[in-house]
Amino acid sequence: MPKPSFGCLVCRSRRVKCDERIGGCLNCERYGASCPGYQDRFDVMLRLRTPLVTGSPQAQNPPSPRRDDGQTVEETPRGQQMLDGAPVTWDNAYRTLEIRRPLHLHSDDVALAMHYSSYCIDFSAVWSPEQIQTQGNGCLFSAIKVLGNISRLQRWSLPDGSATVWKDYSDAIQLLNSALASPLESRTDSTLLATMIMGAIETKAAPSRSFDYWEMHTKGAAALLQLRGPNQVTSRLGSALFFQTSSYMTTVCILSGQRIPEDLHRLRNATNPLLVDPAHPLWKYQGAMFRITDFAAATRTDVSQLEDQEIQHIIVDALNVYEELQAVFSGADAAWQYDRIPSARFSSLVDHEHVYQTQLATQLWNGYRTAVVILCTVVARIAKRLPSQVCLDDQAQAFLNNAAYIINQVAVDTIAAVPRPPAALGSSHNPGYGSYARHAPVFQETQPDSQAVPYMHGCPLQWSVYFAANCEFIEPRVRECLLDILENAAKAMEIQQWKISAEKLRLELRGVPK
């Protein structure tokens, strides 16, 4: 299969590599040209896998083309063509092929194209089904195939519909269980990623039980992470999987009110000697998220049941975590920052929107906002229900007084960070976001990737919107906007889980005044 070109028309015509930067590529900026935008990845993948059938008048004794069922494709005589009113050109003057059924696309090709189009953010290497099937025992490709076919079923059509998906799902489960039972296969990148993909599959297939399935598979992935040991981060792919799996585990713990497992803390400490820069935003973000998760689990007790000294300790601890969160992007290079551009998308509520340099920066900023909302909600509840004046220093007292204001400011930033539909997940995936390669590595990369697997990305924006909308200190008009975003995301961005979250919130917030 030839290497696909997703770049803009200008770069492709000049035969130069396009960086596919959001808002227009760097080459067009250098040329002083208006960047025409980028091709749809799903369409490109399908075109590359589709055979081209042409009829040449000069061909001598050409073989009779055959369909998938073995029958010969019939030729339409020129006279019949003219009777049908078809235009006659030099290319079709002698004969025209009449293909009575669509050209065959193998289901594996379509499923993989759907996966690349909807879930991948790193296109440095686009692999064929044959190449991915060689990774591990095949459980990775089986999981990818199921996830791709679910998206295909939801967006277009799939032969035999749900029956095909369930058969593929059964095959994927068997292969994954076999990999997990093997001491060798259980440590591979493909098995870890397949475990995470199965969680995404079951979230799509059974949304009413998505949190249960997600928790089960994410904990399984975390166990694999610990089994792989600290040296897993010394390859680029291993480092990415380490942070991604840890992030998923953090979300599960926050939702269930649990602390980060001690084994995960020990694994993080074990990777510390392998760091390139301890001030790397991704490393600092992970540490801050571990702290906020443990803080949230420790403060689920009713405030009215606590002594003044305990409340004082909670507020001071919250302030320390907040300062750690604020320091995540301190001193970071421009690739981690975002631009504010004027916008009227959200009427008078937000007069700007955010444009991020990379997908990873987008993820971290939205995860940061989720953590701030969770943290400040605890503090704002204390400020609201505080039975007596607790002795605090000026900085802690100011944080206590401003907690509700901080929540609303972060909620507004969350709205501004919502991407436009063409830049969202799905067939209109905007390649302007860069890949992980645009950021400096977190760990010393002393070994190459042991396997070639496509990256997936989560969607932290969902949680920043969800937790902000669910916060009792959010202004009514801001909450309504956030709920609308959740409800419309299923249509505009094809993220069904957002719609489920919105329905759950609407039900819980029925008694909340607007």
UniProtKB/TrEMBL annotation:
Keyword annotations of the record: Nucleus
Highest taxon listed in the record's lineage: Eukaryota
Entry keyword Nucleotide-binding: no
Molecular-function annotations in GO: DNA-binding transcription factor activity, RNA polymerase II-specific; zinc ion binding
SMART domains linked: GAL4
Record-linked InterPro entries: DHMBA_Reg_Transcription_Factor, Fun_TF, Zn2-C6_fun-type_DNA-bd_sf, Zn2Cys6_DnaBD
Protein's name according to its UniProt entry: Zn(2)-C6 fungal-type domain-containing protein
Organism: Fusarium redolens
